[in-house]
Amino acid sequence: MEENKDYCIVADYGFEKLEKILSIIGGKWKIQLIYHLGQKHTLRYGELKRLLPAISHKILSAQLKDLEKSGLVQRIEYPEIPARVEYQLTRSGIELMPIYEAVNKWCEENGEVFMTE
Questions:
Q1: Domain HTH hxlR-type, which positions (predicted)?
Q2: 106 or 62, higher pLDDT
Q3: Which of 6, 11, 61, 93 is buried most deeply by CB count within 10 Å?
Q4: How far is CA 57 from CA 1, 42, 50, 65, 109, in A?
Q5: pTM of the predicted structure, to 2 decimals
Q6: Domain layout of the chain by residue ranges
Q7: Dihedral angle computed from the Cα positions of residues 92, 97, 100 and 106, in that order, rounded to the nearest 10 degrees
């Protein structure tokens, strides 16, 4: 089967949705938070802080709130003393994992792109 080199598959989708999701998950900390929650499934605030020691409490709280507002992370608060709060990916957040895998595969296959800097 001959491939049509003039056809661009992204033309079917446009750029707006990709641009939107990249703005939601973009940045150093959100990507790392989604990664850790994808690995561990459920983490408490203190566990996330230990996994990302360079992040400040203010930034960690803000990033988690942003991800929660975007519908990618769920905050679960338990009525206990002392308070216990856990974070986990929502269904939408979990569905991002194949995208992470695809980007990682692309990076492995195209590593020379990063070596030009």
A1: 8-115
A2: 62
A3: 93
A4: 55, 19, 11, 12, 36
A5: 0.80
A6: 28-111
A7: -120
